[in-house]
Amino acid sequence: MPSLTLLLLSRWQFAFTVAFHMTFPAITVGLAVFLAFVYGMYLRTGERVYLQIFRFWKKIFAVGFALGVVAGTVITFEFGLNWGPYAAATGPILGPIIGMEVVTAFFLEAGFIGIMLYGDGRVSPRVMFTACCLVALGTVLSTTWILAANSWMQTPAGYRIVAGQFQPADWVAAIFNPSFAWRFPHMLLAVLISAAWLIGGICAYYLLVGRHLGFARRGFSLALGVLALLVPAQLYIGDNVAFLDLAYQPPKFEALEGNWTSDNTGYNLIVVPDLAHQRNLVQITIPKLDSVIAKDLSGHTAAPGLAQTPRSEQPNMWAVFYGFRVMFYAALVMFAAALTGVVLRLRRRLYVARWFHRWMVWLTPIGVAAVIGGWVTAETGRQPFVVYGLLRTDQAVSHLAPASLIGSMIAFVLVYLTLYATWIVYVIRAIRRGPDPADLTDPARLAEGAPGTGDTADKPGTAPAAEPPGV
Amino acid sequence: MAQIAWYAITLFCLAMYVLLDGYDLGIGVLLLADRDDERRREMVELVATAWDGNESWLVLLGVALFGGLPAAYGVLLPALYVPVLVMLFAIIFRGVAIEMISAAPGFPRGWGWAFGLGSLVASFAQGVTLGGLLSGVALRGGVFAGASFDFLTPYAVLTGFAAVALYATAGAAVLRVKTEGALYRRAMLAGRAALVATVALAAASAAALAPATATPVRLGEPGRLAAFVVLVLVAAAGLGLAGRGFGRRPDWVATAGVTAAEGAGLAGLLVAIYPVVVPPRLDLAAAAAPAGSLNFLLVGVGVNLPLVLFYNWYAHHVFRGKYRVLLAARPTGQSAAARATDPTPATPRGKVTP
What we know:
The structure holds 2 protein chains of 2 kinds. By secondary structure, chain A is mainly α. Chain A has helices spanning about 5-25, 25-45, 50-80, 85-120, 125-155, 170-175, 180-210, 215-250, 250-255, 290-295, 315-345, 355-360, 365-380, 400-435, 440; strands spanning about 160, 165-170, 265-275, 280-285, 385, 390. Chain A has one domain (about 5-260, about 305-450). Chain A is built from 15 helices and 6 strands. A two-stranded antiparallel ribbon of chain A has the order 1-2. Chain A has a two-stranded antiparallel ribbon with strand order 3-4. The longest helix of chain A has about 35 residues, at about 215-250. Chain A is globular and about 70 Å long. By secondary structure, chain B is an all-alpha fold. Helix content of chain B is about 75%, strand content about 5%. In chain B, the strands form 2 sheets. Chain B has a two-stranded antiparallel ribbon. In chain B, strands 3-4 form a two-stranded antiparallel sheet. In chain B, helix 3 packs antiparallel against helix 12, helix 5 (about 80-105) packs antiparallel against helix 6 (about 110-135) and helix 6 crosses helix 7. The longest helix of chain B is centred in the middle third of the chain and has 32 residues, at about 180-210. Chain B is globular and about 55 Å long. At the A-B interface, helix 3, helix 4, strand 2 and helix 14 of A face helix 3, helix 4, helix 5, strand 2 and helix 12 of B.
């Protein structure tokens, strides 16, 4: 048995580094899809505002993507650094799945991102568009494989255990494990929605201050359109993910509902759990609602309580309950905002309702907050197991000297907080500078660097030059 | 058989990483020796177009070990915790610095230092990691049982310096291909100096392997010895070719020489210590994953490797040729990458308009 400090420090370190990493894919996957879409629209319609949108968001994307890549590289090695026994036990199943992620997705993104970011003028617009699509495809494939690996840890399948090691018995069953089918679309929609809030929020800021209106209106409209479609779909999928927990990981479900005993038919809004005495000190509940959510309108179905799970197998209710509540409350706010957007659009007030723009600015980070909340629920709810029901986290941790772990933890916190501050300052500066009006008017900038770029620049033919600026 | 095939792919990833990220880390090291902002910016821009793809080989190497050699991965990372983490931090700073410099006008000095020092520290830490591994890892019951700083042997420090010298040589060789003017001339001088250091440090590392480390060197068998001698000769010829290449046209000769030397050097090390994966004792058979995992990896990764190589080739192909050719059409002080990410027109500076 490792010491408690070692286990706790290792878990905090992993949680911190993964949460830091996660904030970037949560934005860049959706932004990659958005960039491919607007570049495609620019090629199709020739409207210059799409080019302006592309060039502005590309700047935000470039640095976010770089941060995601370097923080992701750390995680690849952390499996072995802090969780050596875990790596040795799960490597035969998770290694190949993550290996597929690297060769099918990571390299695809990394190979074409250089062209996407710096290829303007070196390659034809068609090649640029292809590069954008491949980067977007790479980010989506990446999400797919990572979710397959993580879902296997939640609902392991297709394995046999030989001498304490998980070995593959059926790859199809392992990859398409029971929770993958719902958790993958849940995550994909979550990252698309997070990016849409970022885009919507920043465009709302420009609408509010009255700058770059053509740019802002087009982006605002696209973001809210996407949200109107995806947020309701996400509520439906998320509901299914929660009931998946009820079927496969009862303790997680019990903890996220915030009950100890199995007799509460109401829905807990706030609880203050007392873990030692297995009870809630404070519990604010809407009567009957949980029964209704469980599709029993009579109000008699009670949620199962965590006390029915042996203490040695209970997750921490604080983390699971509040992780879930952050995600769920954020989802309700997002739903209300997306719906308001639809109503304002139908009443043709989308670009003039200043109160709504102000609201949207405040909601800019809400998607990312919901993603982090959701991951806290998923990962802490699986505890005390790292592979649910089979491998306990305390048996998976590397026996490192506490000094190295404390040292690296301090370094991670300092470095990551510095980088996070840098990133936020960078984004704020990019917003202050705003999109370049010259993208709309200056024909020489249309096919960037077209004359005299040497033998490699294809003809800038497809970009129509005479079109009036969009909007 | 599957074990050997996967081990070959794993080592191929290592070789590709050393070849590709080696040169862009090396350019970062050389940047520290340059005082001119315009030249420094050009070096960063050269790296900016390719580093993502180059660094991906490191991730693939990590995952190849995780999936295919989990028992080795699970012990060598805890054993090499400190240098691996130092390397990762250095890589983080330099990766972010590349994009921040690219996105900023002019040359932000602070990020320039982050890029240069990050590259230097990452290179050194990679050499130390390899040297620390070769120095031997204490195991008990298949789990790392040593102390945090066991890796820090004189041999590891030697290989750390060797990695810096080698990468700097590779960086200079690539600069010869990609640049013109002052940077092109400086790359020749820097390349020659780094090459001399590389020859000395690499020779010392090779000679000290058997006496100074716990790695069992098995050159007693005649077949191995013959292969080892041939590979050492190829590596020496490669470095010799690189020496000739700095200063003469065609410009690609130095790069070809360094590439041959890196490949032959790694192959020579493999011949000397195979089948040990984690010295002194953990060998391939004990470290490898079961056949089911290896077969999946071989098919899945094997099918994709040609594609991955194509992406790498294509990314380099798009940005092929001398960088100045592209810059000629740009306003001075602003490179292609800067313009792509920085929409502020350069004209207010009163310089040449496009």
